[in-house]
Amino acid sequence: MLTLKESMELAGANLLHTLCDIYQGIVDSTAAGLRINFHFDYEDEDLHLSSTRNQWATLQIWPKTSKPLFVRIPRWAPPDSVHLRVNEKPVPNQQIDGFLFVERQQPGGQIQIEYALPERTTSETTDEVEYQLSWRGDDLVGIKPNTDYLPFYPTGP
User: Fold this and answer.
1) Same domain, 77 and 44
2) The domain that contains 82 carries what CATH number?
3) Measured between alpha carbons, how far is 147 from 73 in angstroms, rounded to an integer?
4) Are residues 87 and 129 located together in one domain of the fold?
């Protein structure tokens, strides 16, 4: 049987391994081009990504290669809210299998993708307590009822 310390060390190692796997899967190089799977800050020899979320999500891409890009757009993002700009100029959206297609660009340019973060509320019951969860996109932004002692999330509306 593991001690608490050994269990915590194992959990930490598993978490670190999972985070490394996710980071390695942010961008895949395929025969068709670069596929961007996750909207996280990232940099490698092919591109630099910067992701921000406020009322809208913004993904900025600075290509270092002229390979075409396929950018996954979350399914919950309203399709009419997705806006693509290349070097600050609007470009029509081309979607291929849930990915926004961006044709070959010269290295050093900038690609910007914006989309809405829809707000919704769900409810979950745990230990006979019904919780109202407030979401913005796929981020949990509030919970009600909440705890006064070290709350993980802000109190929801």
Assistant:
1) yes
2) 2.60.40.1180
3) 34
4) no
Residue 32: CB atoms within 10 A of its CB come to 13
3-state SS assignment for residue 126: strand
Count of residues making up the chain: 157
Would you state the pLDDT for residue 6? 67
Cα angle 39-42-48, degrees, rounded to a multiple of 5: 100
Residue 2 lies in a domain: no
- Considering the domain architecture, whether residues 108 and 129 belong to the same structural domain is answered as no
pLDDT in tens, 21-55: 888 889 999 999 999 999 999 999 999 999 999 98
Place of tokens 């796997």: 21
pTM of the model: 0.82
